[in-house]
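Lecture notes, continued. The same structure-token format from the folding unit now serves as the input rather than the output. Read the line below as a description of shape only.
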């Protein structure tokens, strides 16, 4: 989940970027970028549920340049900050 470029995933699946992008858009109704970001956010949510791991460690795991850029990404994709997500989901 460190890769956020559809070209990377297209190559892994032996498809051209154009083919991959078309398939994702056709099958999900989302742009490849949106689809990749949602998949990444879902993985991050799993990590945020483990309260023994610092948010900064999660940011590093997914190769964000800073905790701030990580937080902005997560907030943009999910509509909630990582710390608020953790607070809301730590009792589940």
């Amino acid at each position: 989940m460190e890769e956020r470029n559809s070209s990377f995933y297209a190559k892994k699946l032996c498809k051209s970027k154009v083919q991959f992008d078309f398939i994702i858009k056709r099958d999900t109704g989302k742009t490849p970028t949106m689809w990749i970001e949602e998949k990444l956010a879902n993985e991050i949510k799993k990590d945020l549920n483990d309260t023994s791991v610092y948010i900064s460690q999660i940011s590093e795991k997914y190769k964000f340049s800073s905790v701030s850029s990580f937080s902005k990404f997560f907030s943009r994709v999910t509509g909630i900050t990582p710390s608020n997500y953790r607070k809301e989901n730590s009792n589940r």
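Point for the exam: DSSP finds six helices and no strands in the chain.
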